[in-house]
Design brief:
By secondary structure, the protein is mainly α. It contains 4 helices and no strands.
Length: 110
Amino acid sequence: MKSMTPIEREARHVLRGYQRRGGKEYRQKQVRRALIFCAHAHGMGAHHLGQIGQRHVVAFLVHVAVAGRAERTVDGYWDAIRHLIRRARQLGILRRDHPDPPRPPYGRRG
């Protein structure tokens, strides 16, 4: 079993309350997506949530889109990243002025 990186441990801590309330299956899927994003950001050099920037988000969303995922799936990953950043802001891990992640490059439908 692979050990978690510091950024993944931090993300799991931040999303613990989010995962425990609401629609369980969807929330668990969003937490898994956020952890996948954190692993990608760690590969780009981010070791803590405070080091995540727009460059990490855009590179990850492009990576997911190029992998042939549907727009709805890319939107799901974006939503998971947005929840991660908002919860980290609420808990004081990120600055209050830390921006929301940029939207996927193709825009959102509907």
